[in-house]
Amino acid sequence: MCKTIDPNVISYLRQTENCVISTGAGVSVESGIPTFRDALTGFWSNYDPMTLATPTGFRKDPKLVWEWYRFRQGLVMKTKPNPGHYAIAEMEKMFAEFLLITQNIDGLHHRAGSRNLVEIHGNIHRYKCFQEETIVDPLPESDEVPPRCPNCGSYIRPDVVWFGEQLPMEGLEKAEQAITSCDTLISVGTSGAVYPVALFPAQAKHYGAFVIEINLEETPISEIADVSLLGKSGEILPQLVKELKKARE
Ligand code: BJW
């Protein structure tokens, strides 16, 4: 269990009116979801996620990429939010302004109750047409893998953001507005290896925010963070909420 949080952190959070939390795969590890970069076992250990999660990978072998996502969706559906997700959902109610920006496609933040939320890399439970990019709901029943768009006949794909693709404009604008105006940004469970989200902590700092990082280990974000809290997000975040509530009494 984590020790007392650095009093500086609680003091900054007490004064914070506008808080942004940015999360990555680490926040879902304690729910049992392997990170993008963790090796999947068995059949999928032979494939490189960096190759599969691209439009080129899908064009080359749509069936393989589709089945990879169906496999991962099956894993996600067996999980539930952990104390880190619930603590973040609680923090949404503790600040006058709040935005959660998640790179995670698993939907666990929403299931934990977060509502001021931007899923900036999409959602594995949603589908769109590969050609037209329109959302397809419900998925048409079909023996074909992947199934085809009922409107244009192109393949259907998961509504996630692959390497080389633009992030959704509306989400990006909302994120940038929050990052440039927040008092505190908390970056949780991300390696800081994927852009543009990797730049968010430095951008927030540039605009005057206090930057807190929560991760098992140091990352490139640690270099610019005001405080790095090393440990499991499922332990540190509930502790943070507990101490902040106590300090506000
Ligand atoms: C714990 C923990 C516990 C574990 N508690 N912590 C600028 C410079 C260089 C390259 C680029 C650039 N701008 C754009 C690029 C190209 C590219 C990119 O970033 N490449 C990098 C590889 C260098 N970016 C893009 O293409 C993006 N598009 C874009 O920018 O469009 C404009 C443009 C296009 C082309 C050229 C230039 C501009 C799109 C990026 C889309 C990323 N998509 C993925 C896949 C989503 C679908 C799927 O899951 O299949 O999103 S990649 C993958 O990485 C996934 C994740 O959301 C993302 C981030 O990973 P994350 O969350 O950080 O996870 P990990 O595994 O890396 O780290 C986990 C961390 O948790 C670790 O640090 C652990 O220690 C920690 N941890 N347990 C706390 N209990």
Task: Explain how this protein is built.
- The protein folds into two domains: 1-31 and 81-121 and 167-249, 3-Layer(aba) Sandwich (Rossmann fold); 34-78 and 123-160, SIR2/SIRT2 'Small Domain'.
- The longest helix is centred in the first third of the chain and has 16 residues, at 62-77.
- It is 35% helix and 17% strand.
- With 249 residues, it is of the alpha/beta class.
- The model has no long low-confidence stretch (mean pLDDT 95).
- The strands form two sheets. A six-stranded parallel beta sheet has the order 3-2-1-6-7-8, sandwiched between helices. A two-stranded antiparallel ribbon has the order 4-5.
- It contains ten helices and eight strands.
- Helix 7 links the parallel strand 2 and strand 3.
List the helices and strands and how they pair.
Elements: H1 7-15, E1 18-23, H2 26-29, H3 49-52, H4 55-60, H5 62-77, H6 83-91, E2 97-102, H7 108-112, E3 117-119, E4 122-129, E5 156-160, H8 169-179, E6 184-188, H9 200-206, E7 210-215, E8 227-230, H10 233-248
Parallel strand pairs: 1-2, 1-6, 2-3, 6-7, 7-8
Antiparallel strand pairs: 4-5
Helix pairs in contact: 1-10, 6-10
Instruction: Give, in order, the helices and strands.
Output: HEHHHHHEHEEEHEHEEH
Oligomer: single chain
Rg, Cα atoms, Å: 19 Å
What is the average per-residue confidence, as pLDDT, rounded to a whole number? 95
Helix/strand-derived category reads alpha/beta
Taking the sheet with the most strands, its summary is: 6 strands, parallel
* Relevant CATH superfamily of the largest domain: TPP-binding domain
Low-confidence stretches: none
Query: Could you say how many structural domains there are in total?
Result: 2
CATH class of the largest domain: Alpha Beta
Strand content: 15-25%
- What's the N-to-C terminus distance? 24 Å
- Please give the count of helices: 10
CATH-defined fold name of the largest domain? Rossmann fold
Sequence of strands across the biggest β-sheet: 3-2-1-6-7-8
Helix content: 25-40%
Ligand identities? ligand BJW
Shape descriptor: elongated
Second-tier CATH architecture of the largest domain: 3-Layer(aba) Sandwich
The counted number of beta strands is: 8
